[in-house]
Amino acid sequence: MMAAMSRLALAVPLVLPLLVLSPALPWQDGAPQSPVSGPAEAHAAVSILMSLEELVSASSMVVVATATERESRWETLPGGRRIVTYTKLRVDRTVTGSAPKEVVVRTLGGVVGKIGQQVSGEAAISIGKPSMLFLVEVDQTLVVTGLAQGHYPVVTDAKGVARLASSPDAGTLLPRRGPQIAARELLVGATVDDGSQAVERARRALDGK
């Protein structure tokens, strides 16, 4: 019980997300666009940077996967009734853990009818594009570990090399204390192979403790 609670705490780090209600918006590049304008401080989630070891430890699996379809709906969550989005992804590569050929991941926010909800700091998964995802099962539902900190879209650089990028809206990330380096510093800009190997090393180190 305590282990499950600890894992859930890491899956959703100290974060103050902004939930925006707005008219339904068109989907651009596979992800909803923000209708909000105004001071940046009012629109940023705040969270503490997580280390790679923390992300890996809190995750049931780490995969490289491509989103193929999604559905948004209203659900009652501990914080109230909100829009959530379920995205189906084809697993292209299992980095750690055991993953099926397809997974369904829930993220906060989305569009239902004429109502849209945007949650700053949440992973923004684009349809048709691969990404590395740290996933954890919470109440029999897969979610992204650490919100946007557990989502790394795969982009191709000028030389045609596939590299990991940061999630589009990570919110405001506060520096972490201690000797461990933040996962984003290790993964953003790394090739998919190098990033996967770093995750595998972290998993082996944790298993050896």
Topology (SSEs and partners):
Blueprint: H1 2-11, E1 19-23, E2 27-28, E3 31-32, E4 46-48, H2 52-58, E5 61-77, E6 80-96, E7 102-108, E8 110-112, E9 115-119, E10 130-138, E11 141-144, E12 151-156, E13 162-164, E14 172-174, H3 183-187, H4 192-207
Parallel strand pairs: 4-14, 7-11
Antiparallel strand pairs: 1-9, 2-3, 5-6, 5-10, 6-7, 8-9, 10-11, 10-12, 12-13
Structure description:
With 209 residues, this protein is of the alpha+beta class. The protein contains 4 helices and 14 strands. The chain has helices at residues 2-11, 52-58, 183-187, 192-207; strands spanning 19-23, 27-28, 31-32, 46-48, 61-77, 80-96, 102-108, 110-112, 115-119, 130-138, 141-144, 151-156, 162-164, 172-174. The longest helix has 16 residues, at 192-207. The two termini are 21 Å apart.
> What is the approximate shape?
globular
Low-confidence stretches: 1-18, 25-29, 32-44
| Proportion in helices | 10-25%
Radius of gyration: 16 Å
Strand proportion, as a percent range, falls in 35-45%
Count up the helices: 4
| N to C succession of SSEs | HEEEEHEEEEEEEEEEHH
